[in-house]
Amino acid sequence: MGVLRVGLCPGLTQEMVQLLRSRGIKTVVDLVSADLEEVAQIRGLSYKAGALQRIQVVHVFDIFQMLGVLQDLRGTVAQQVSSSSGTLRMVVVDSVTAVVSPLLGGQQREGLALMMQLARELKTLARDLGMAVVVTNHITRDRDSGRLKPALGRSWSFVPSTRILLNVIEETGTSGSQRMVCLTKSPRQPTGVREMVDIGTWGTPGQSPSLKGDQT
Question: Of the candidates 95, 80, 64, which has an alpha carbon nearest to the alpha carbon of residue 129?
């Protein structure tokens, strides 16, 4: 879930972020769902924040609903491309595990086939329509080594072209919003690169005003 922060869109200043938060609007989903006209009139906010309202949020609860949404999206984007109108640039699936994992294991033999059908739909959006596709997945621990690994097994591991591991930092004195980001798969960059970030601001600890006092 995207947290509202300075610079997320033109005109979204620190003052505006604070005003939005005072109205209970803390995330992109909150802003999309809010009556921005009313908020703007009460608080005098810039209409530039309305850029975030171009984000569409669709709730799905099983893989069949997700496949239907992606297929409709593919048709819509294809029409926009052919007509040279403004097109969608990114699709975010959060999370793929929630709709796929109930279908895997046991006697549900169609689960793997449905998972790979979902993978093909996402790859079509990325490869054929030039969209950025971001998918969140859960992590599990390997039974033998105890190391963290992506959920959904080996078959899904070949689907994403780039994979980033986001791990909670559980050290004394660290902020609860800090995460260690590690690049574990990439077609262009060397893997193993690590960086600590603050998901409250989506900057490094050195860039986060709330963390400057905690650094040594």
Answer: 80
- Whether residue 129 contacts residue 74, with contact meaning beta carbons closer than 8 Å, is answered with yes
- pTM equals 0.67
pLDDT at 215: 33
pLDDT level of residue 46 (50, 70, 90 thresholds): low
How far apart CA 17 and CA 29 sit, in angstroms, is 14
Gap between the Cα atoms of 61 and 65, Å rounded: 7
Q: Which CATH number fits domain 58-76+86-159: 3.40.50.1000, 3.40.50.300, 1.10.1530.10, 3.20.20.140?
A: 3.40.50.300
Amino acid residing at 151: A
Write the DSSP symbol of residue 156.
Answer: H
Q: Contact 200/187 with Cβ under 8 angstroms?
A: no
Q: How far apart are CA 12 and CA 98, in angstroms?
A: 32
Domain boundaries, the chain: 1-57, 58-76+86-159, 161-203
